[in-house]
Amino acid sequence: MPESDLDWSTGVADDFEWSVVDEEQLENAALNAYLDVEDEYVPLPSEDSFLILSGDNAGSVVTAPPSRAVASATGHAPPRIDRDQALAGSRPIYLVQRGGRYHRFLPRVLVGLHAAYGDNLALGAIANVPSANAQAHRNFFSFSPVSALQIADPQCYLLDTEILRLKKDPITARAYKNAPYLAHTDAPDWVQRVLDAQRASGANLLLTPGRALDPDEPQRSLDGIYEQGDDVLSRLNHGERVALNLTLPARWLSSIALRNRLLDQIMDQDQFDTLYVRVQWAQGKAFIPPDDAELLTGIKRLANLCADEDRCLLLPQTGLTGWYALAHGAAGFGLGVSGADQAFAEFVFRPGAKGAVERYFEKQLLHTLDRNTHNVLAKAPGYVRCACPYCPALFANEPWSHELSALHYLHSVGELTAKVQQDSQRHGRHAALRRIVTAAHRYSTGLPLSSEQSPKHLDAWGQAL
User: Fold this and answer.
1) How far apart, in whole angstroms, are the C-alpha atoms of residue 63 and residue 75?
2) pLDDT value for 446
3) Which helix (H) or strand (E) holds 246?
C-alpha cells in the first residue's frame, strides 16, 4: 500500500470506530507548545561536546550549548558509537526510516533516545534513494549525528512487479530522476551505479541491490542474488562495508521447503556478515502486527540461524514485528512514522478514511489504538501514563497533534528496544522480551476492548516465545 494511504494520521477505518477530524485550517497547538520549550542540552563528555535535545538546534552535536539553554536533568549522555561497533551486536540496533512526513523531527527523537538509552541501544537512520535527491539524504544523515548506521536503501525491488504485490507503476517519474539506475537495469555497470547512488547519498553501510527472490524459481533466484552480491563485494573501496540485501515474499518464510532452501543458502554462503532482509506479507490494518503463526515461525528460524552463525540480521520496515524478532536473534529492526514503514505489505487498494485518524501507541499494551479507546483505557485501573518528551504537549493541547503522536510512538518503541537490552542480564534478550510481552498480555486481560481492537499478536508472540 502506498505510504500516503498508510500515514500515521490516515488509514483504513473499517472495523474500527476511529475518531476522525478535519485538520484543514487548524493550527497545531500541541506541536507549537512542544517546539516552544526552552533549549535543552546534555553534556557529551567523551567528545567534550553537547547534545542539543530541544530548541532550534535540536538533534545536533555542538562544542558549546546555545546561550540561555538549560542543562537536562538526565546527566551526561553516553559516548557515541560508530558503524562497526553497532554491527558488532553488543546492543540492539534501532533503525528509523526517513519517510515522507515529519522527517525534520526525527533527529530530535534520535538524540533524545541516545541521551536516555545510548548505553543499551545502537541507532541508525534509513533513507530511500528514490524518494529524494542525494543532497537531501546527505542532509538527513548529517542532522542525525547519533546514528551509527546510515543506510541509503536503493529499493531495487520496485522493479519486481511480477514477484511482489506492488501498486500499479510503483516507480514514479520523481523516483527515476532520483534513482536513474532503476531505468537502466541492462547497463553493464548497473551494480556500480546502484552502489554509487548510495555513496552519493552519504550511506556508511552499503546494500546489494536487493531484487526480489522469486519463490517459483527458488534456486535460480538465490544464485542470482548471491552472484550479484559477490559482484558488489568486488567493487567495495577500502573501509566500506556491505549488507546482503534480500527482499522476500512471505512464502519464503512461511513455506517449510522454501525456508529451508533459503536458510541452507545463507549458512553455506558466509561471505556476508550482515543481512538486510525485507519481507512482504499480507496486508493488514495499519500499525497492527501480523499474527500469522507460520510467518512468525519463519522469522524466528531466520533470526535463530543468523544468531547461531554470527550474522548480523537487520529487519527494516517491520515495526513491532522486528522488535519481537530481537528475542530470537535479530540484531536490529526498522520502522518509521507511516503504516508503510511498519510493514512491507502486499498492495491492496482500499479507500482511505475521510479526515485524519487520531492514533496513539500504548506502550504498556504493545498496541496502537484510536484516541477514544485510549481515553477509556487511561481511566482504567493499572494504567501507566507515558513519560516521554512528547506526551505532555500532546495531551495538554487541542487539536490532536499527529506529529507528536508519531514521535511518541518512535520514542516508545526505542525505549522498549533499550529495555530488552537493559533486562537481558537475566537470561538474555529472549527472556527479557518475553517478560515484556507477558506483562502486556496480562494487562490486556479484562480491558474494555472489542475483538477488533484487542492485541491478537500478543497471543501469537506468547506461543512463539
Assistant:
1) 17
2) 84
3) strand 242-249
* Contact assessment for residue 93 and residue 86, using Cβ atoms and an 8 Å cutoff: yes
Q: What is the pLDDT of residue 175?
A: 97
Determine the pLDDT at residue 286: 75
Extract the C-alpha cell encoding 300. Answer: 524466528
User: Which helix H or strand E contains 124, and what residues bound it?
Assistant: strand 122-128
* Residue 449 phi, psi (nearest 5): -115, 140
Terminal Cα distance for the chain, rounded: 30
Picking from 146, 6, 95, the residue whose alpha carbon sits closest to that of residue 276 is: 95
Q: Can you read off the three cell numbers belonging to residue 104?
A: 525534520
In a 13 Å sphere around the CA of 251, the CA atoms on its Cβ side amount to 14
Other beta carbons within 10 Å of 386: 19
Q: What is the pLDDT of residues 255-285, one digit of tens each?
A: 999 999 999 999 999 999 999 999 999 988 7
Q: What are phi and psi of 279, to 5 degrees?
A: -120, 125
Please list, residue by residue across 46-73, b when 16 or more beta carbons sit within 10 angstroms of its beta carbon and e when fewer do. Answer: eeebbbbbbbebbbbbeeebeeebeebe
DSSP code for 285: S
Contact criterion met (CB below 8 Å) for 142 and 135 = no
Element (H, E) at 416: helix 402-422
Residue 227 Cα distances to 152, 164, 167, 211, 234, angstroms: 21, 21, 29, 12, 11
Sign of CA dihedral 361, 463, 299, 332: positive
Cell of 127: 533513507
Global pTM reads: 0.93
- pLDDT at residue 38 tops 80: no
CA distance readout (Å), 197 to 73, 178, 465: 42, 9, 40
How would you classify the pairing of strands 49-54 and 61-62? Answer: antiparallel
Q: DSSP alpha helices (H): ranges in 181-292?
A: 190-200, 218-234, 251-254, 256-268
**H helix runs in 269-351, sequence order:** 293-308, 319-325
Average pLDDT, the chain: 90
Residue 19 has pLDDT above 80, yes or no: no
C-alpha torsion sign, points 133, 138, 143, 147: positive
Per the structure block, which three cell numbers stand in for 201?
547519498
Task: Determine the pLDDT at residue 87.
Answer: 98
